[in-house]
Design goal:
This protein is mostly helical. It has helices at residues 4-10, 12-23, 28-46, 51-85, 87-98, 102-120, 125-136, 141-150, 159-173, 177-185, 194-210, 213-225, 231-235, 238-259, 264-281, 321-339, 345-350, 376-390, 395-427, 439-451, 455-470, 473-491, 495-508, 514-522, 530-555.
C-alpha cells in the first residue's frame, strides 16, 4: 500500500496554487513564485532530490517558458497587426452579416474555429488565436478568455494531429510487458494496434461530455457578462447550441473510428463549420427577432476589460472580406501542412533547431532542442509579415504593432518564469534519497489506494491534475497511462477504457491549466486576473471529470 503521507505532501504545490491563485485571487505573478518555492522545498527536504536535479529541472522549465513566450508574442503580434491594418474591423463587420448575436458568434469562433486550430496545432494555440479574435469582434476580454479556455477540453485529446494519443499514450505505455501481454491475449498483432481502439473510446467519452460545452459557454457568457446577467438568455438558444455541438461531435466520433486519432478534431470541426455557418445565417433553430449583445462599452464593468485597449482601425484602402480573413486561413493552412506526417514538411522544419542538452548538470533531466521554425510562433510571425504586405501597411503601423506586442509579452513573462519551472521540478522529482517515486506518481498511487474498485470514477481526475500541473494533455498521458493501465488490471477493469478515461481527464485539465490561462490572459492584456478565470473554468472541469468518471464506471 502506498505511503498516503507522501501522497498528501506531493499535493502541496497544487494546494498553494489553488489557495492563493484561485481562493485568495492573487495574480499568477505573485502566486506562482510561492508555488515554485513550495515545489523546490518539498523536492529537496522531503523527496531528498539532489540540488543539481532541481536546478536542471528549473532550467528546463525556463527553456519551455521561452518557447511559450515566443508563441504568445506571435499571437499578440497577429492581433495588433490586423488591428492596425483594418483587417479586424472588416472581419467584425463580416460576422455581423452572418449574425450579430454574440451567443452564435462565440459558438462559431471559440467552439468550431477553436476546435479546428486545436486539431491542427494544439498546445494552447486555440486561445492564442480565438481569444484575441473575439476581443476584436467586440467581446469583453474576460469573456473572451473564459470562452477560449472552456473549449480546450473536447478537441484536445486529438489536438496537434493526434499528439496526445500518438505520442502521449504511446510513450506512456511503451516497453511495458503487461501491456504487450494484454495485447497478445486480446488478439492484437502488436500492442500499438490498441491505440486506435483507445482513440475511439476517447472520442465516445468526449462526445457525451462535450456536447454540452457550447451551451455552457453561452450560458456562462450571458450570466457573467450579460446586461441582465441571466443564464436564461443563454438557454434560449439551447437548440442551436446542441445542434452546433452535434455538428462537430458526430463526425468527430465517426472519424476517430474510421481514420484513427489524427483527424477527429480537425475534420470534425471543419464539417461543423460547413453546417453551422449557413444555419446561423438563416437563423435555424434560433429565436425569431432576437439578437443578444453585451452592453455598450461605456456601461460595461471595467473589470471585464483588458489593460490594453484594442482599437479597430479602418483600412486605409478597400479591403475585401477574403483579404481580411486570409491571414487566419494562412495560419490554418501552414499549421496543417507542417503537421501532417505524410507531407514531410514538419520533419524538415524540425531539423532546424536550437540545440538541447542531455543530462543537464549530470542529472536525469534533458532539455529538448527548440524547434524554432516548427513552432506556432513562427507561423504567426510569417503570417504577420504576409498580412502587412497584403493589407498594404506602412512601417509606422508595423512598428506600433510590434512595440505593443513586446510590452504585452513582458507582462506575461513573470508568471510563466515561475509556473513552468515549478511544473518541471514537480515532474522530475524521482531518484531522491528518500526512495520515493515522482510527485505525480505518488499522488496518483494514493488516490488509487483509496478508490479501490471505484478507480474508473477517479481516473479522469488524475489525468486532469496531470494536465493542470504540466499544462499538456500529452505530458499527462505520458506520466500516467502506464499507471492507469496497471491499476485497471489489478482491479479487473478494462485497461483500454481506463487509459481512455485518463486521456479525457487530461484534456479537461487544460481548461484550468495555469500557464494556459496566463497565456490566454496575456494576449488580451488581462494579466493578474488568472485566478478569476480559473474559478469559472473549474466548474466546467468538475462537470467534465464527473461525467467521464460516471461513464467510466458504466463502461470500464
Amino acid at each position: 500500500m502506498p505511503d498516503l503521507h507522501s501522497s498528501l505532501v506531493s499535493l502541496s504545490p497544487i494546494l498553494v496554487v489553488g489557495i492563493f491563485l484561485v481562493g485568495l485571487r492573487w495574480s499568477a505573478a505573485k502566486a506562482m513564485p510561492l508555488a515554485y518555492v513550495t515545489a523546490v522545498t518539498v523536492a529537496y527536504f522531503y523527496w531528498q532530490v539532489d540540488l543539481t536535479q532541481i536546478e536542471a529541472a528549473s532550467l528546463k522549465g525556463l527553456a519551455v517558458t521561452f518557447t511559450l513566450l515566443y508563441i504568445i508574442f506571435g499571437a499578440i503580434l497577429l492581433l495588433n497587426t490586423l488591428s492596425e491594418s483594418g483587417g479586424l474591423s472588416v472581419i467584425r463587420s463580416g460576422f455581423t452579416r452572418i449574425t450579430a448575436d454574440r451567443r452564435v458568434q462565440v459558438i462559431i469562433v471559440a467552439w468550431l474555429f477553436g476546435s479546428f486550430i486545436e486539431g491542427t496545432a494544439g498546445f494552447g494555440t486555440p486561445a492564442a488565436v480565438c481569444v484575441p479574435l473575439l476581443v476584436g469582434l467586440g467581446f469583453p476580454a474576460k469573456s473572451a478568455v473564459i470562452s477560449g479556455m472552456l473549449i480546450q477540453s473536447t478537441p484536445v485529446s486529438f489536438g496537434a494531429v493526434g499528439t496526445p494519443i500518438l505520442v502521449g499514450v504511446r510513450k506512456g505505455l511503451e516497453g511495458n510487458e503487461n501491456v504487450i501481454s494484454y495485447a497478445t491475449a486480446s488478439g492484437f498483432e502488436s500492442w500499438t494496434e490498441m491505440l486506435p481502439v483507445i482513440a475511439t473510446r476517447v472520442a465516445i467519452l468526449h462526445a457525451v461530455a462535450g456536447t454540452l460545452i457550447p451551451l455552457f459557454v453561452v450560458c456562462l457568457m450571458t450570466k457573467l457578462f450579460g446586461r441582465d446577467q441571466r443564464f436564461s438568455d443563454g438557454l434560449r438558444i439551447w437548440k442551436f447550441a446542441l445542434f452546433a455541438a452535434l455538428a462537430m461531435t458526430i463526425p468527430y466520433v465517426a472519424i476517430a473510428f474510421l481514420l484513427g486519432p489524427e483527424f477527429p478534431s480537425m475534420i470534425g470541426s471543419l464539417i461543423g463549420l460547413a453546417i453551422v455557418v449557413p444555419a446561423a445565417k438563416h437563423r435555424f433553430l434560433l429565436p425569431k427577432n432576437e439578437v443578444w449583445d453585451f452592453d455598450s462599452g461605456s456601461k460595461r464593468d471595467e473589470s471585464w476589460n483588458g489593460r490594453i485597449e484594442i482599437k479597430l482601425e479602418e483600412p486605409t484602402t478597400h479591403l475585401p472580406m477574403w483579404k481580411a480573413w486570409l491571414p487566419y486561413m494562412m495560419i490554418a493552412t501552414l499549421l496543417v501542412i507542417s503537421r501532417l506526417p505524410v507531407l514531410g514538411i514538419g520533419n524538415l522544419l524540425k531539423s532546424i533547431t536550437i540545440p538541447g542538452n542531455e543530462n543537464v548538470f549530470g542529472s536525469t533531466v534533458s532539455i529538448s532542442p527548440v524547434e524554432f521554425l516548427y513552432s506556432p510562433g513562427s507561423v504567426f510571425i510569417v503570417t504577420c509579415l504576409f498580412a502587412a504586405v497584403l493589407h498594404r501597411m506602412n512601417w509606422s503601423a508595423m512598428g506600433r504593432a510590434t512595440a505593443k506586442s513586446a510590452k504585452m509579452v513582458f507582462s506575461a513573462s513573470v508568471a510563466l518564469v515561475f509556473a513552468v519551472p515549478m511544473v518541471q521540478v514537480f515532474i522530475n522529482s524521482t531518484g531522491g534519497a528518500a526512495g520515493l517515486d515522482s510527485m505525480p506518481n505518488e499522488l496518483a498511487s494514493g488516490v488509487a489506494s483509496l478508490a479501490g474498485s471505484a478507480w474508473p470514477a477517479f481516473s479522469p481526475l488524475i489525468g486532469g491534475l496531470g494536465a493542470f500541473v504540466a499544462g499538456s494533455n500529452t505530458i499527462s498521458n505520458m506520466m500516467f497511462s502506464q499507471f492507469q493501465f496497471g491499476v485497471a488490471e489489478q482491479i479487473g477493469a478494462s485497461p483500454l477504457w481506463v487509459v481512455a478515461l485518463q486521456a479525457v481527464g487530461g484534456a479537461a485539465g487544460n481548461v484550468i491549466c495555469v500557464h494556459n490561462v496566463v497565456a490566454a490572459c496575456a494576449v488580451v492584456g488581462l494579466i493578474g486576473r488568472e485566478g478569476e478565470i480559473i474559478r469559472v473554468t473549474f466548474l466546467v472541469f468538475l462537470y467534465y471529470i464527473i461525467v467521464a468518471g460516471t461513464l467510466g464506471m458504466m463502461f470500464a
